[in-house]
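Q: Could you predict the 3D structure of Response regulator?
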Amino acid sequence: MMCSDIHIDDVSQDKKQSARELLKSLELSRDGCVYFVRDRVRWSFYIVRGKLVYASHSLDSFERLERHLRSLSREVPSLNDKLRSQLRLMFDDPSPEKAKYKVTSEMLCVEYLAILWLVDENYLPKPMAGKLVARIIQEVVESFLCLPNGNFNDIYYEHFLQQTYCSLSIDRIVEVVNQRLKAWYSLGPTIRSPYQCPYLVSQSTAEKSMSPETVQRLGRILRGFNFCQLGALLSKDPLAIAKQLSILISDGAILLRDPLSPFDMLPHTYYLAPEAEQENITQLSETFVDEVSSGDDIANISQAFKSQSAKTWKIVCIDDSESMLSIISSYLGREDFQVTLIQDSMKALMKINSIRPDLILLDIGMPNVDGYQLCTLIRKSSALKDIPIVMVTGNKGIIDRARARFAGATDYLTKPFMQADLLKMMMRHLL
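A: Sure. Here are the predicted structure tokens for Response regulator:
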């Protein structure tokens, strides 16, 4: 593997450049991977014959893959929750000692290896892999083009993808994304990022625009997910969701919170431009005002949320630590979760049999019967074998993950975790 500095289009490294200029200059790059590091985020672009065949950035790339796989699962049923969890256990291991992908990931994004595996194992047809890759490219380019002008240090790698599934004209993808960014900009300054998290804070205000039943469903799904995650849940474009919710945001029915880590490191779609540029940007935004009326927006978002289940999910949490059970209970303390806390692993199996939960959160390090043993026992029960089991542990090593997988675990949650991490786990396996 050889890598070397490359000065694309002979542009001086001392000259401030725009992300758009840099991306368009890749049309003249050799086949391979060109990546840029800016504000601690690594942006990777894979080029073949001047076309863009993949793109990624270093912030939780597997979460991005999971979201797009979830959206595609409506067209490809094999991309179900169980398979997506299997992918995470196989490929998304943060342990530095995991040597299998340690070197490769410097030149080849680990999530792309997961896509290759899906195609090779016949879970994902090649045309659908092309659609998946195109959607990922669009999302990455959308964030990249929001970067302010500055100095970009670029590195070129000769190593290349084993197989490609789509080939996009850089001119065309820049044109499409620029139109989307104008639309995002028109929603500012309140909505300034696809990774902001909307929360329902006033049911009475929302009920002026939609039925109480729809408002209830709206509140159940707006529980810490950002616009991109909501897009995956509802199978809709995040931009469309932001437009439709903007009415309720303006009315004060919905409160927007800043992007959660690590997405707070990504640039905003709305920013305060230099005064000399502000007038031009304002005029540009005005030319892209959505002609859909407010009533139509409310009708659209109402229809999307009407399809959401009103089910109360039964969650069993098994942990010998009373403080950990208390934390999990507080994180899930909502009317749509019925949480059962179990401290004694010896009695857990009997209780699980009587409850028949929708999901089990299982600590690994417990006395008497540990999490691995209990998980194995649960999987031997014909009545319980298909319940998602999430192993909760402070251990991050490959051996621990392998043992969890062999015991029959569906997924893996590493301590310490935030409420958003737990809710994302709920999204993967329940919604």
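Q: Anything worth pointing out?
A: The CA atoms of residues 248 and 390 lie 35 Å apart.
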